[in-house]
Amino acid sequence: MAGYSVVRGGTIITNDVTRRIIKNGAIVYEDDHILKVGKEEELSKEFEHPDSIIDARRKIIIPGIVQAHTHVMGHLFKGFTEDGAEDAFYKVCLPMEDYITREDAYWLSLVGCIEAVKFGTTMINDIFHYADVTAGVVEKVGIRGVIEQKVFDVKSLGKIGDMDYSRDIDAGMRRLKLNEELIRKWNGSSNGRIRCWVGNHAPDTNSPELLSAGRELADRYGVGIHIHVAQSTREVRYVKKEYGKTSVEFLNSLGFLRDDVVCAHLSFADPKDIAMLEASGAGMAHCPVIMGKFGSFPRIAEFLNSKVTIGLGSDWVSLNPWEDMRAAIEITRSIAKNISLQNAQRAFELATLGSAKLLKADQQVGSIEQGKKADIVIVDPNRPNLVPMRDVLQSLVYNMTGNEVETVICDGKPVVSNFRMVNVDEDSAIRRAQEVAERIWTESGVHQSPT
Known about the structure:
The chain is globular. It is of the alpha/beta class.
């Protein structure tokens, strides 16, 4: 048998249905899919002459991480929201978005994707401006992405911090048309690595007409919807005042919520909302680090005990899924006063199979199994923060920084090799993103660039 590759000698966290961990394991893959997973000793006899071999001895092999909610351009706002929380988000970050150009979007998206993939992420679900630019970057970097255009019909996102929700319906419909063009051009491209959904931004920034139009667009193309729901006090206050409902109730009353909808945050969802989400099949993209910083954590114990599908995301500013796994455990335990509610295994599952299920991709990614896509991450555990190592998965979840990711393979092709990006010049990208950010900070008047 020829035309296949082998990753051999490592400890494999398969994340399969039995949650097998295989020491001295091997993965055989051909083109974009996995042929077999098992003990190296056994597979070496069956697959004697591979085209290529990756030596993973003394390494740990995990499935690629799937991020259920991202804004890869959001590192532009590092240092602005962490201590300012909701006010900074509405009064600093949203106004700053007006100063981002298409060229800026390329460099900001590129560095965001680099950050994500170098921490072991192989799939993102990203909603922001200039989504077609982000789709092109995802294609170039070599990872998977579900991409949505940021659709809204308030006249200015920068003014809703002052509760100014005046609308321009025509502008909203033009943004939705851009989303449709994104779907027509990019959905299913790059061997299926890139998919495109509808990106109605939030129930307060979208009128009922625009939400219904977004639902119709998703139905017409057979794609999902990615939306922020119950994410802030401003949003829930506006929706309650305008429609007399919670954000979840409002969306449900429009027939918007179905099993193809990913709701980011749900920080202010109440028990009745959780029941509605269960009934509709809509899922939750839980972003514990950013919500912990905002001080508005969802009823996570109730969500975890519900039938709502949950995945993990980083949102923006930082795209480190290991921090989110730890926060998903530690903050949950603290607020629920229940240590047994969350653990390393469950957090890792949320960051892989949970997110994949949300994105209708769990038959392809989220675990290392025969027939699934060859999305494979190799971790070098020979670091002081990871030794001594007793339980492999617990050691990674509780102690990894993300900088231990040595190799990333997505769709059977190397994306990171020996800790460096394969398809892009990361040093140039970092330099250009810094220049872009400094210009935007200066032009927007929120921060003078350093001298």
